[in-house]
Design brief:
0% strand, mainly alpha, single chain, 4 helices, 77% helix
Length: 74
């Protein structure tokens, strides 16, 4: 195998490993970060969206509040 192929494969392997480590570190946020995220999300949600989350059918878990409201208007 020539040096260019070895370098290319090694670079690809290192880049893939770096992406995996970065994703893992971002997924492991502190409880304070999670609290801030939830607080910001709750401030953005309307009362109807909050109630909709409490009353939603588990089969509709992939649909957002906005999509569910649009479906009710049809």
């Amino acid at each position: 195998m020539n040096m260019k192929k070895i370098f290319k494969r090694t670079s690809l392997l290192l880049a893939t490993a770096l992406i995996g480590v970065t994703a893992t570190v971002q997924a492991q946020k502190s409880p304070q970060d999670m609290d801030r995220f939830i607080d910001a999300l709750m401030r953005r949600m309307t009362v109807e969206e909050k109630i909709g989350q409490l009353n939603r059918d588990r089969r509709d878990h992939h649909r957002s509040g906005k999509e569910q409201r649009r479906g009710q208007e049809d």
